[in-house]
Design goal:
This protein is an alpha+beta fold. It has helices spanning 20-29, 53-66, 99-104, 128-142, 172-177; strands at residues 2-5, 8-14, 71-77, 80-88, 112-119, 146-150, 181-186, 190-197.
Length: 200
Amino acid sequence: MTTETNETTYRIEPLSPETWPAFDAMVQRHNGIFGGCWCVWFHLDDDTERGPGAEGNRTFKKQCVDGGRAHAALVMDGDEAIAWAEYGTPAELPNIHHRKQYDATTSVAPDYRITCVFVDRRHRRQGVTELAIKGALDLIAQAGGGTVESYPHDLTNQTKKMSSSFLYNGTRRLYERLGFTYDRPKGLKNCVMVTTVDPA
C-alpha cells in the first residue's frame, strides 16, 4: 500500500525478518521506546520468556518476528521505518492493560487486536498514526479479515490535553474516523473499539 501525504510518499510494509533492520533502527533511534520496552509487553503472559532489560526485550522481539509471532504494519519513508501499528491475534498478544476488567466484560474474543501505535518524533502530527492503523487493517484483510479490537485513549470528557507521546494507541475519535464502533470503557481513560474487516 502506497499513500501520499503532504507531498511525501509513504508505503506500508509488514514487520518481518526482512524489514526487521528498519524496525530495529527506528526503535534504537528512540532509546528502545518507553524505557526500552521494544513493544514486547503485549506479547507476554509472564516475564520468564525474555531476558533482562532493554536488550532482553529486543532479543525477545526479534525471536517473535523470526518465528512469525509478531505482526505490525510499518510505515516506510524510503528505506526508513517512521511508524508502526502492532496487531495480532489474542494468542499472540494476550497481555493488555486493565486485563481483569476486560476479561470480566468480554463474551467473545476478537480475531485480532491492535495494541500499540508509535510514530517517529520527527513525523508526528502529520496523519501518520492513521496511516499505520489503516496499514494494519489492510494486512489483516490480506490475512482473511475478521473482528478487530483496539484499546485507545478515550478523551471524550477530558478537558486537559494529553501529550501525544503518551497516546500509545491513538484516541477514540481517531478510531471512530476509521470506522470503529465504541463498545465499552476499559480502565479510567481507555476504551474498547471494534470493527469488522472483510477479507481482501
